[in-house]
Design brief:
The chain contains 11 helices and 3 strands, in the order H-H-H-H-H-H-H-E-E-H-H-H-H-E. The chain is mostly helical. The chain has one domain. Helix 3 runs antiparallel to helix 5. The longest helix has about 35 residues.
Length: about 300
C-alpha cells in the first residue's frame, strides 16, 4: 500500500502537538508521566481513524496481524511505562541493602530485564502463538545487511559532532551520563562502565526489535509505508522525560531508521547505530563533567 500523505501528516501533527503540550506543561498534570498511556492510546485511535477515514482500510478488511500487533504494542508499552521503568523497581522489590556494591544499578538492570521481556520476548511469543510468524518475519535476519552498512556509518559520523556540542549544554549534562549511579567521588571505573554498556546494548536491541521490527513489519504487510507513521508516535512519546531536543529529534530518527529497516528487512544495524550514539552521549557527558577514569 502506498504512503497516504493525509495519514502521514495527521500522525506527525499529533506527535508534534504532544511534544509541544507535554514539555510546556511539565509543572501540571498534562506534562506528567501519568498522561503518557493516554497519549499512546490516542495515537492508536488517531492512526486507525485516519486509515479508515481515508479509506485505506475498513473495519471488515483489517488483517488479524494488524490488530494483534497494533493493540499489543500499545498495551506492552503502557505496561513497561507504568511498571517496568527504573522508578518502578522499588514498587516491586521495596528497599534494598544499599551497602551492596551493585545496589545503585539494581533499578537499571530491572529496566533492562523489563525491556527485553516486554519489547522482545513477549512480541515474539505473540507472533508465534497467535499469528504463526517467525522472527525472520519481523526483521531478525541478517541477509543483505552489509550493503547498507555505509549509511549507518555516515549517520554515526554525523551524529557524533552534534553530541559533542550537546555535551556543552547544562540541560544535557543534567540528564547525562545515564550511568551516574556508578560514578563515585567523581571517578568512574572502566570495568563498571563496560559492564553497564553491555547491559545497555540489550535496551537498544529490545527497542529496535520492537519499533523497527515487530511494530513496523507487523503493520507494513497491510498498511505499507503508512506503518512508519504509526510506529513513530509511540516511539517519540517513549522519549518523554528526556531533553526536548532529543525527543524532537526522535521524530526524524524513527522515520529514518524505520525506512532503512524496511529497505534491507532487518533492524540490527539500527541497534548498532543507536547504541553507538548513546555510547558517545555517555562518554562526552562524562568528559563534560570532568569525571576521572580509573581501572
Amino acid at each position: 500500500m502506498p504512503l497516504h500523505f493525509g495519514v502521514a501528516g495527521g500522525c506527525l501533527l499529533y506527535v508534534l502537538s504532544c511534544i509541544a503540550f507535554w514539555y510546556n506543561n511539565r509543572d501540571g498534570w498534562f506534562g506528567s508521566s501519568e498522561t503518557v498511556p493516554y497519549l499512546l492510546g490516542g495515537g492508536l485511535v488517531l492512526f486507525f481513524g485516519l486509515c479508515i477515514g481515508f479509506r485505506l482500510i475498513s473495519w471488515r478488511t483489517i488483517h488479524k496481524e494488524t490488530i494483534v500487533v497494533a493493540v499489543s504494542s500499545i498495551v506492552l508499552l503502557t505496561v513497561l511505562w507504568e511498571y517496568g521503568r527504573r522508578d518502578s523497581f522499588h514498587f516491586w522489590f521495596g528497599q534494598v541493602d544499599v551497602s551492596h556494591p551493585m545496589a545503585p544499578l539494581f533499578p537499571f538492570y530491572f529496566f533492562v530485564a523489563s525491556a527485553v521481556c516486554l519489547r522482545m520476548m513477549v512480541p515474539l511469543l505473540l507472533a508465534r502463538l497467535t499469528l504463526g510468524r517467525s522472527p525472520l518475519d519481523y526483521g531478525y535476519g541478517f541477509h543483505g545487511v552489509l550493503r547498507y552498512t555505509w549509511i549507518y556509518v555516515v549517520t554515526l559520523l554525523v551524529a557524533i559532532p552534534l553530541v559533542m556540542y550537546a555535551a556543552t549544554l547544562p540541560s544535557f549534562l543534567q540528564k547525562y551520563p545515564l550511568c551516574k549511579q556508578i560514578i563515585t567521588a567523581n571517578t568512574l571505573s572502566v570495568s563498571s562502565f563496560v559492564l553497564y554498556q553491555l547491559a545497555y546494548s540489550l535496551v537498544f536491541a529490545s527497542g529496535e526489535s520492537f519499533w523497527r521490527g515487530y511494530m513496523l513489519f507487523g503493520l507494513h504487510r497491510q498498511l505499507g509505508a503508512n506503518a512508519l507513521f504509526f510506529m513513530v508516535i509511540p516511539y517519540v512519546i517513549s522519549h518523554f522525560g528526556k531533553p526536548w531536543p532529543e525527543t524532537l529529534g526522535a521524530v526524524f530518527t524513527g522515520l529514518f531508521l524505520g525506512s532503512l529497516a524496511l529497505a534491507h528487512r532487518s533492524f540490527w544495524l539500527g541497534v548498532a547505530t543507536h547504541w553507538g550514539v548513546a555510547l558517545s552521549m555517555d562518554i562526552f557527558a562524562i568528559r563534560g563533567r570532568m569525571v576521572e577514569w580509573v581501572p
